[in-house]
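Subject: sequence -> structure tokens, single chain

Hey, anyone have a minute? Need the predicted structure for the following. Not urgent.
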Amino acid sequence: MEQWRFLDTGTNSPAVNMAIDEAVLTIHSEGKTKPSVRFYDWSPATVSIGYFQKAEKEIDLARVQKHGLGFVRRATGGRTVLHDKELTYSVVVSENHPLMPSGVTDAYRIISQGLLEGFRLLGMQADLMNPEAAKFVEPSSAACFDAPSSYELVVEGRKVAGSAQTRQKGVVLQHGSILLDMDAELLFDIIRFPNERVRDRLLQSFYEKAVAINELRKQPVTLEDVKPAFREGFARGFAVELIEDGLTPEELELAEQLAREKYGDADWNFRR
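Reply:
Had a minute. Here:
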């Protein structure tokens, strides 16, 4: 059975979290590491925006600061995510790996199998969003969980895990959020809307489109409860053995540089 790395890098700042993802991608592109699955957490709770979003147009940055939230732009696309009370994962693997299809949507399907297995191990019935059905689901706000994309995880039609993907240097990086609990009021307080009436209407609609794990369970789970399930889920989904590992000295050095010079810099975070 093929062995991949399992990295649990714990709690980090928004800049460091995004820097580690890019550093792992870069060093893997140089053939120095095996494919990896990484789990991580955020301090403080953080608003992340997709690479193509316009920060000041879509996000009320004064309210982000008022709530004491972190802020960072991802290297991946997609919409706004509030990283709080969730398990965040990332998968880094070469585009040329036998498991990886050439198309982005098909790669989502492969990686999402690991998430699906994780939910099953928690005793939950989740499904992959059908690509044909996804074509007819339009987001009504800048929030990521407002609409599922092809092969994202849904429970009874409501999105429970959101992911984003980029391909750089011949490597696939997909990362995403698995919601344990959800503070939709806080999320919608930092997203810009034309007026309060529109905000309230879209917030009510959002509750019908997104759901967190602990809303679906009689017995709530914690971050430490779900990690083993999703670690095993990814191992089963990829049919690999996940070997516990740490970041290499090169990855650590590059991540520190990227956190300082890129993800912690206003030129990157507010560029659009």
